Structures
1.
Amino acid sequence: MKRSKRFLELEKRPISNDGFIREWPEAGLVAMEGPDDPKPSVTVENGKIVELDGKRREDFDMLDSFIADHTLDLNIVEEVMAHDSKELAKKIVDLNVCRDEVKRFGLGMTPAKVVEVVGHMNVVEMMMAVQKMRARKTPSNQCHVTNVKDHPALLAADAAEAALRGFDEMETTVGIVRYAPSNAISIMVGSQTGRGGVLTQCAVEEAMELEMGMRGFTAYAETVSVYGTEQVFVDGDDTPWSKSFLASAYASRGLKMRYTSGTGSEAEMGFADGKSMLYLEARCLYMTKGAGVQGIQNGSISCIGVPGAVPSGVRAILAENLIAMLLDLECASGNDQTFTHSRTRRTARMLMQFLPGTDFIFSGYSAVPNYDNMFAGSTHDVDDYDDFLTLQRDLKVNGGLVPVDEEEVIKVRNKGVRALQAVFKELSMPDITDEEVEAATYAHGSKDMPDRDVRGDFRGIEDMLNRGTTGVQIVQALAKHGFEDVAENFFNLLKQRIAGDYLHTSAIFDENFHCISAVNDKNDYAGPGTGYRISDELWEKLKNTRLAKDPANIGE
Amino acid sequence: MDKELVESIVRNVLSNLDEGQSGSSKSPKKNTGGNGLTDKDYPLGEKRKDLVKTPSGKSLDDIKFEDIISGKTDGSELKITAETLNHQAEIARSVDREQFAKNLERAAELTRVDDDRILEIYNQLRPYRSTKQELLDIANELENKYDAVINAELIREAADVYEKRNRLKGDR
């Protein structure tokens, strides 16, 4: 065939490298409205659910049992299930029906029902619903702070800058597992240098993650994964009961936590039971609710290649965020792992959460270059900061970031690394040299950093752990070396565990350690002029980006 | 609509009656203590400092930065207590978060269990790790040694489900 020059040009476009596949329901490769999804149904007898979504109790798997006994509200489930799904969908979208009234439906719908309900919505209606149903009134944002070398100096500098830029939560993970405690401490010190009250976590294996939290190296946890089929749940080495126990273990130490789930994980692991991705995700969310966890990170997350490849996949991702909100869960709404080569797709996918606002629009935004992102990249990164700030300015949307000044950034990065240098010295960890401080202050990424002596670092980390080091020693080290303000922020974060206010749904701290959550900052959106609005003070900041010229200086 | 409302109220009342009859062992003593806490008392650390104490009984204001630096106050004071968790559960209930409130009540019980034992129990609860008897032993330990009644119930339930679904030690 003689080739068309237009088609030859199209083939050169980045999107041609993306993976797309036609629907294949038997393998779970269908985003929502799967032909073999169960029809919604429930039967209650003698105060017990005896039938759920077409399955009798004797045939329940672990998730069915857990959802039937811990999640659904027996007082309302039959009443709500009797409603027409389209009518429920209309009420969810209708801005004249308040959030509290809609919230009541959540625990009265079975997983199959809620999937049918959101299936009636297009993405604009879903965004309307997200705007009304997200738990916290004020939207916020989370970032990733990692690097290929697990370089502590660079982690501290990046965390300090990210805090200054406005992220309320920060997540790190490791290239090599043994670096985990070092990474956790590095972003904690860096973040508290940038702004007191930023919450930090380190995503590793469940038991290790809990231990770091108990020691005071992290402030919350998120990588506590749940899955929508029993086989995948068990392959993930957990059950709904072990995960529920873990949830209470965190709370018993005054530590905030949320679960993680997402469409596509079951298909990716080969056990989707022929069900749609959204139906299986709905089961995860109902399980999460039943465990009594305050929130969820979802939006496909690390499996986004799967829903991203099938029709209506990005719509399903928004739908799963919405289902979390219908269950009154905090929602850290994805937008993390890279799924496309196309800048257009990347932005379009992100707008679904950016425009209505969520508890955490990204989970997270890459506060490092993409090559340093150890969560397999993110849809947006440090090189997109100006684009993102411009979108906020263009559309008058608070996406959680504020414009910053280069000189300020350099200053705070430098201070963050020097603070960590002091901590490492005091904890007898391998030195952070002055050369490393200088490199991290001005670095774009780990390519600009000298290599670490990895073996030496491991020995240092092991010794530090064996000495029983906790957050308190870090506070003392910071104070001893003149970083009183950072020490005090670190101390205040540890002190918050006593009161436990930040265990609640969608909790974050402002710079004065005032807790803002879905208890004292309830979303009260009810149409134009209500709900969250950008304050005049914030708008002044958002307008004045680096790229915006001052008319007074034109022609000088 | 009115008919629906009445029906729903009746169901509500009946189910509460059911709970009251069958479940004295199921609904263990809750430390709600009738403080009547609601979202108006939140954040507790700001609005109800009188109710927030450290493990040794100090108030929030007694926990000072200088004393942590000098070592006068021990790091073990930076912990939440069972009482505070039960207060937070009460607040959670006031904003209709029943399951979350229950989680906080389970957590209140677990404040009495040390870190290592918590990690061990968590690992024992993972699939294929324990026999049914081992799980029941943990439940008894939690109930008798730590007065952790709600957690014990959760683990007994797990033991039954693991048995039914073949997720006990040796089932793989």
2.
Amino acid sequence: MRKINVLTLAAMGTTLALGLAACGGTAGGGGNATTGSGASGAAASTAKYNDGYTKVVNPSDAKGGTLKFALTDEPDSVDPGNTYYAWNWDFTRLYARPLMTYAAEPGDAGLKLVPDLAEGAGEASADGLTWTYKLKKGIKYDDGTEVKAADVKYAVARSNFTDELTDGPKYFAQYLDADGYKGPYKDKNLDDFKGVETPDDYTVVFKLKHPFAEFDFLVANPQTAPVPQAKDTGVDYEKTVASTGPFKFESYEVGKQLNLVRNTNWDQATDTTRKQLPDRIEVQYKQNAEDIDSRLIAGQIQVDLGGTGVQSAARAKIVGDPKLKDSTDNPFTPFNRYAMMSTQVKPFDNIECRKAVQYATDKVATQAPWGGPLGGEIGTTAMTPTTVGYKAFDLFPNGADHTGDLAKAKESLAACGQPNGFATNIAVRGDRTKEVQVAEAMQASLDRVGIKLTIKKYPSGDWSAQYAGKPDFVHKNNLGIMVAGWGSDWPSGFGFLSQIVDGRFIKPSGNYNMMELNDKSVNDLLDKGIQTTDATARNEIWAEVDKKVMESAAFLPFVYEKTLIFRPSNLTNVYVHPAYGMYDYTWLGVQQ
Amino acid sequence: MPGSDPPGHPGRTIVVAFIVRRVIAAVLMLAVVSAATFAIFFLIPRALGQTPEGMASRYVGRDATPEAIQGAVKRMHLDDPILVQYGRFAQGIVAGQDYSLGPKKAECPAPCFGFSFNNNQPVWPTLLDRLPATLSLAFGAAIVWLISGVGIGVISALRRGTLLDRTAMTVALAGVSLPIYFTGLVSLSVFAYTLGIFPGGGSYTPITQNPVMWFQALILPWITLAFLYAALYARLTRAGMLETMSEDYIRTARAKGLKESTVVVKHALRATLTPILTIFGLDLGLLLGGAVLTESTFSIQGIGKLVIDAIRGNDLPVVLGVTLFAAFFIVLANLIVDILYAVVDPRVRLS
Amino acid sequence: MTAPLDVSGQAMEAQPEAVLEGVGGKAIEGRSLGQIAWIRLKRDKAAIIGAFVVVFLTLIAIFAERPFGGLIALFGDLPNVPHNNLIDPMTSAPKAGWGGISLEHPFGLEPVNGRDLFARVLSGAQISLLVAFLATLVSVVIGALLGVVAGFFGGWVDTLISRLMDVFLAFPLLLFAIAIVGALPDQALGLQGNGLRISVIVFIIGFFSWPYIARIVRGQTLSLREREFVDAARSLGAGNGYIIFREVLPNLVAPILVYATLLIPTNILFEASLSFLGVGVNEPQASWGGMLTRAVDYYQIAPHFMIVPGLAIFITVMAFNLLGDGLRDALDPRAR
């Protein structure tokens, strides 16, 4: 259950300072635009706790060596068009280049998009309904053939319009104007796909149903990484991915091991965001979590691919050892951990009863299961701090130490007409220990004001299809509170919020707006925001939406998730990429 | 007495007929088990309100559109009557099946157990892939427990009532009273993480890759698993020995003036071991279908770990595949034991 | 002999007939079999200790939470009350050494949320024993009935029931149990929550372990039906039902009792395994196996969290095994 599956986050790319040092691999480039700790290489041992969060640690341009990753789980697929894990969106960039990607910088600068396969950012038409991208010329696959615009079109078609590739998100199917298209597996003629047009070999034009100002974020998804139609083998394509990045497949054993080697047809001159330092990259799947930690600390492997942080045993060890602690970073992940109160389940149809829960919750107790302060910062908003547009505020202060304001809770209960409390259910994914522990903590903390919770456990596999994501079921079973988590697919307010707060997204099944909040002002603001082309104005709107959502008192944030990730001393060029909340995998090198 | 059937005896055809009969029975048994298994996993969820769409939604990722779910229902024929689905499943096992993987059909040769919901890989190769880990664990542990369990049982029986006997039997009783995941965790905690003598959980390495690592990583799991069985076998052996030692023919043997060691080894032990070996066959068969608890505790990627992960991830085809695979080993072990018995002891055939 | 868990254990009772032969045997010197057995049992110190522990634990389980909050309330802390202030948030382990063991918390605290382990172990005892007793009852009822029918009537009835036993024994029991319990909805059959789960677990364990009892009963019945008193009853015109329930079954009480006693610890282990694998009773209800699952993540930093429930299981199972062994030895003159 260490999967982060669902909702992954964010975006893809990386890059470093746009055309600066990274290009051309000028020696000593480790410093690049970011702070860097002076002399390359030598500085390894001076790095401090959280240094990787603000600058590049162990900068080095030394090539060679084998970079080793390990993962407790296995990916849904390593096909860039068929995966929905944040870490995999980070990792696939090693061999797949989407149209746009994120700047390779720590801190907020890394949330900016830069062109990758494309020459520049997308150009929107005046009506906002078409977005045009020009491809860089001379980008090649690992077999030496050139990337054509049609390959990008095909990649979008296969990943969004087929029944077979089911693992990735379907944003393009949702936003592109391609009704009636049956997908390239049923309809071999790509010309029938009208959602994307390719007037020439280097131009890709997306046709939208509605204006969508953040389209650049969508094309930063690995699903726009080109796939030659002739080479596509559907679900099996993951075994023979045509690489455009600095590394290519050497061998892949599903569920066991992936080995990458340098792709000689990748040209640094065309790529501003990646490096090509190691000779080879090895990934082992299905490894034991404790074992990964001890191998990391011993420097036998370099990265825990999942980026979920060390286990409790290693955490305790690290906390007690300042030297070890200096080899860790504690970044935010894109995840918010929260509960939603159903506005359609009595007595939560009354906002005062929802407020009572907001005030009575002991957020220190609900923080504990995530690993205390190292596992998450106590949250008070719907958006997370690393989301573009985030503003801090707290509408329901629950005591100076966040352990609950029982007096205010009782006031709200009285206002709700339930002065002695009430009974309701709290739904939770039963196979996720941490979430069950959160539910237990809620149970104990609400009990203090007479609100009696019964914990209902449901399997996570069907959680959204059949249980908490099915309003009918929620109403019938009186699921007043549902414990959930969300990480956005791209780090903007819209990417984060639209799926979980837009009243028009309340679906009969697979619903993520579990509070069933359908507030016209929220919906309208979302529409206004996504059509606002000016980024600053747009981001203001997202903060406004956040505030409106919190005003409903139906959204109960627990923690902005953080992870404690270990950075072995032989790992070079390492920094936390803010879009993923884990290291930038395309930058890493290994000291030999 | 065992082994008294001389070669070339006219009983040979009877033996062959017996074997044929048992093999047919075993195959029938597997068919029944497979049908029952299929029913349990497909019929019971349906009876409890699961819909074909619900099952299909496990196969398509999150955020699946209703069309995608319908597509999966159609593609996997989840809306067919349950009997038709079973027919297709059985046909897949016997004759193989084709699946659509996108632009082309993928052939899933017999025995085809379908594709995993989670990673789209065919189930059968995955099973075979996990088998070596389980084999390593089961056979290694079996050797340890057979030798130590029977050895301790014999010594205890011969030294009946002594301090040695009582200590051994107390330890054995403790052994069968300890849950394996508890002994496993304690041994990991002490020997791997505190003393650092053995590698920790998840360090299993295939023997082909590194025999030394393979051996080191398996020592703790072997001992943990074997402890439980050794305790059991020590108790069984001791009870069996005590019983045979009081039989008339042993007394006769002694009266004939045979050496005590000959009596013990040639007569008593031999008679005791026959039922123990029967049990051993069955135990081993059961373990080969996956040592769920041991593999979970030590993070060994064997069949047992595969199935527990599959159950947690609602990966029905894998669960179904492993269950049948495990049943296969149990039936096979039963068959082998039956046949060996028949060969050794002619009376069985006549019954 | 108990069933090991990884196996579901047909192993151990493979030759029960041999071991148990003579249980229904002749009375010696006018003393009833029961009297002899009682005398033997009293001499068996281990069995007596086992019996005491069993009685003690059963009482604890019965009175753990009732009446008036029961033993748990008597000692102060409740099983579901967190003590976050006693936990170090950075490590998730109890702040005080030795797992937070103190007078108020004699078994220490659970990592992360600081719940009192003493209260949780007591609370878990109820689940363990309840499930084990009920499941054993189910398998004894089914096993005894089918076993006696098979042994008594013989012929195709015997063949049918014996084949059925073979099929049941060919099922990888643990896998089935996990899969079925794991697929359980929250509500079904008019039950919900833990009530439903406990019922289903009881039913599954009982339903799949009846063949062990049935085999023994069948073997005993086979020899009993040839005995004079059965013939006598029949010649007096007694029907099959009368003979089975009045003549045969009463003579099988002893072996059934022995094997039921030996099945209980197996079932305790079984329930704990299900909980350990995450398909037992739902939190926050405590269960020993469930506590061990959570201990997996913390056993390196809070070993007491693993040791406390582990020892609880061990002591309970051991006590039942000692008692069961003693009973068997007492009833079977040749096993000593």
